[in-house]
Specification:
heterodimer, A: alpha+beta, 4-stranded antiparallel sheet, two-stranded antiparallel ribbon, B: Rossmann fold, 2 domains, 8-stranded mixed sheet, 11 helices, 18 strands, about 25% helix
């Protein structure tokens, strides 16, 4: 269970993620399982990326969405546990380099963050061996540089 | 390998079939020694025949030969130490040298190697066995995917059709109606670029371009039966378990198969609707659908930069849901409506 002093970061090695229109789309590159988060969850993701610890994220989200700290803390614990179990984030020992989080959207109502999981492509690909990624075939062509 | 190709050419020079094409606008020379192999390999690219505007110096040289017809065997063994890394992929074996310079792909009786330094693909094929649907309709797709990637052109698992050079990109896994939609669009007067693999390129100042990679489409037999005018001209590869006849669109619809277009709209298909309808799709919907179906069905699997490119695409190009009703004739008008309702990115 995530404690207030803990830091996390996106699992850069295995996950690609982008935010578009306040919705996070993330893909676990190895197996094609993909995920989405709605605005509150996306905000949590942005604050994780920015290097805030769990306690700080709870305070920020509660203030931005006008929700109680207790409610946000409980919801965040569940979300962080799920993000961890899906391998989308990893624990960090220290805050690392903190970054400015993007500005919050205003006027959004608080809804408990929920991780939407789409395993259809992952299930399809489970029939095949993991395919190599283009990043496995990196080549620096000095002639073209 | 280069020497082996020269030997094959010396053995059967009259069986050399050579032409220059434009792959995403880059000149590519394809030479094949072997009559059947030559005919079949060139057939997928005829719509990309080079125009006089292309530079003379090829960006890629492809040299293939038929080992049975020429008597020149393959001098290369990807089991050797030169190719240290190997993966089972797409029913074959993808291999790579430790530094990534050489990428090889073995599929049944074919072996091809891309040299990313000299920009050359060399390959040989034992004769006698039929080409698979994939080898015939989409030759060299995995090595070309790497070559395109090296030029910032992302190969996507998507169909691509157009009208007057304005392109509509259609993602989707197998069985989602992608090929049927693209063939129906061409049959009804729209332009065809791809039913399965399209190249996506972002150029500063001119937005996203879509490129045709192959001029073919593969339809399952029940889907092909919906096109009574052309089903008799589909080529059966003779491999019963594949059972996906190939259509060569430039032969069926001369002048309707284009090499490149500007991307104007994205279309997300929904099958099984009572009637054909369109409605706007949100950008997250578009990114979800594109990312899921295009990033994991291409070998080698695209990396995180591909997701960044797709995000930029859905930010710039409007997306639509197209619910597919039972009547094929409704498709082209629906795509035309989508195009009319989608302003060009620089007009938005």
């Amino acid at each position: 269970m995530a404690e207030p002093h803990e830091f996390f970061s996106p699992n850069q090695a295995d996950v690609a993620a982008k935010v578009i229109d306040r919705e996070l789309i993330a893909i676990r590159l190895l197996d094609g399982t993909y995920y989405s988060l709605e605005p509150v969850g996306t905000r949590v993701w942005q604050l994780i990326e920015a290097g805030q610890n769990v306690g700080s994220i709870v305070q920020t989200v509660a203030a931005e969405f006008g929700a109680s700290v207790e409610q946000v803390a409980a919801d965040l614990r569940n979300l962080v546990d799920e993000l961890l179990s899906e391998g989308l984030i990893v624990r960090r020992d220290d805050p690392g380099r903190t970054a400015e989080a993007p500005l919050a959207a205003s006027g959004e109502r608080y809804l408990a963050p929920r991780l939407n999981i789409y395993r259809d492509m992952g299930n399809l690909l489970a029939l095949d061996p993991p395919t190599p990624g283009i990043d496995d075939l990196l080549y620096r062509d000095r002639k073209r540089e | 390998m280069t020497l082996a190709f020269a030997q094959a050419e010396a053995q059967c020079g009259d069986a050399l079939n050579e032409a220059t094409y434009g792959f995403a606008g880059r000149p590519v020379t394809l030479g094949v020694v072997g009559r059947i192999l030559g005919h079949r390999t060139h057939s997928a690219f005829t719509h990309l025949r080079a125009t006089p505007t292309l530079p003379d110096c090829p960006s890629l040289t492809i040299e293939l030969w038929d080992a049975g017809e020429t008597g020149v065997g393959c001098p290369f063994d990807e089991e050797s130490g030169d190719f240290e890394r190997r993966w089972l992929a797409a029913g074959g074996i993808l291999s790579s040298s430790a530094d990534g310079r050489y990428v090889g792909f073995r599929y049944q009786a074919s072996l091809t190697v891309l040299d990313r330094e000299t920009q050359r693909i060399l390959g040989c094929r034992r004769s006698g066995s039929p080409l698979s649907t994939g080898e015939y309709s989409k030759p060299l797709v995995h090595l070309l995917s790497v070559w395109y990637h090296d030029r910032n052109v992302q190969l996507l698992h998507a169909g691509l059709v157009a009208r007057d050079g304005a392109g509509v990109l259609i993602p989707g896994e197998s069985g989602t109606g992608k090929s049927t939609t693209c063939v129906a669009a061409a049959a009804q007067g729209l332009e065809f670029l791809a039913d399965d693999f399209a190249g996506l390129e972002h150029s500063n100042g001119s937005g996203f371009q879509g490129h045709s990679v192959f001029g073919t489409a593969c339809l399952r037999r029940p889907d092909l039966d919906r096109f009574p005018d052309i089903r008799g001209r589909a080529v059966d590869d003779g491999i019963p378990e594949e059972d996906k006849p190939i259509l060569f669109l430039p032969e069926l619809y001369p002048g309707r198969v284009r090499a490149s277009v500007r991307m104007r709209a994205l279309v997300l298909l929904r099958v099984g609707a009572e009637r054909t309808e369109i409605r706007r799709a949100s950008r997250p919907d578009a990114l979800r659908r594109f990312a899921a179906s295009t990033l994991h069905t291409v070998v080698p699997r695209p990396g995180r930069t591909a997701l960044e490119r797709l995000t930029a695409l859905v930010e710039q190009v409007p997306a639509w849901w197209l619910s597919l009703g039972p009547e094929l004739l409704d498709l082209a008008p629906a795509i035309a409506r989508i195009l009319e309702s989608s302003s060009a990115p620089d007009e938005a």
